[in-house]
Amino acid sequence: MIIVDLIKTFSAIxxxxxIIIVSQKFIKVLAQALEGxxxxxxVFMLLGLKTVIVTASFLPAAIFMSVLIVLxxxxxxxxxxxxxxxxxxxxxxxxxxxxxxxxxxxxxxALSMFAAPWAEETSQELMHDDKQSxxxxxxxxxxxxxxxxxxxxxxxxxxxxxxxxxxxxVQNLQxxxxxxxxxxxxxxxxxxxxxxxxxxxxxxLLGIAGQKDFVLETFQEYAVLIEKKATVLNxxxxxxxxxxLLSSSGLREIAEFQSRLNTPLGVLLLAFLAVPLxxxxxxxxxxxxxxxxxxxxxxxxxxxxxxxxxxxSGVMPTWLGYFWLNGLLFLLGLLTLIRSYGWKxxxxxxxxxxxx
Length: 356
Known about the structure:
This protein is of the alpha+beta class. It has 2 domains: 251 residues, no CATH class; 90 residues, no CATH class. It contains 10 helices and 6 strands; from the N terminus they run αααααββββββααααα. The protein has a 6-stranded antiparallel beta sheet, with no helix packed on it. β5 and β6 form a beta hairpin. It is elongated, with a radius of gyration of 31 Å. The two termini are 27 Å apart.
């Protein structure tokens, strides 16, 4: 019964968290799509990838809140008292809860170690590729396209499905001179120097407006630089595969690996803390413990970010890393458990439950 309630509550909380966070990130993606930096087909792919990343990040928080809410309601409705009267103590409650936490920990490890880095790498590659081809999407048949701060303007009558342009006109300002180009066909191509417009079978007129010394030439192929762009994709540490992090000795890579490992550990430790934290009197409300839990998780999340920066900067030794934070969380859970039940009572029930 507890496991069923936990699954329902956990699913609802995680769904709400993911929708809120992904919606905020999705607004930024839509803004870039409206500016033409991201293709429309890529938007929904990015939405799915961001969902994977956010799910991996907020899985421990959803578990923490779900255990608090379910057990808090059971304390308030005296269901825990009924379970205790049947001879099931706090450790039996832990055993039932961790029957769900163990598979969720495995899922959290798979998400943080493999799925989230893959999603981050894929999303960065998609956005990089779309930014490189942003100029192609800005071109429309029958309209003038302007580049290089107005120094280059071109017009095409027709664009095929594969991006081939027909009957192309180009005006290119080169200092005091103006170049006019007419070509039968053209296409955009990314080359090492940037984005080029490759024109085929046309003629080029170059000179200074108002003077007679114009140069007229014909060509079979002529390239016009549209925009200089850097084509190198620089991936952040969050997108590096876990197996590559294991073989690296860099401080940022070590901190990133410890951060990923901290996600499944956080699932277990937050669930351990939530059980005594959820204890309330039958007349008390469960929201007081929820507010306390919000404060604890807020501090815990900020300490995670501080630990990452401390490891990267060398302030904290790599062997200590996130382990001090996990030890502090375990100690907090243990102290809360002793405060709620007393160490003598806990020791007695531990011996009766776990020792032969």
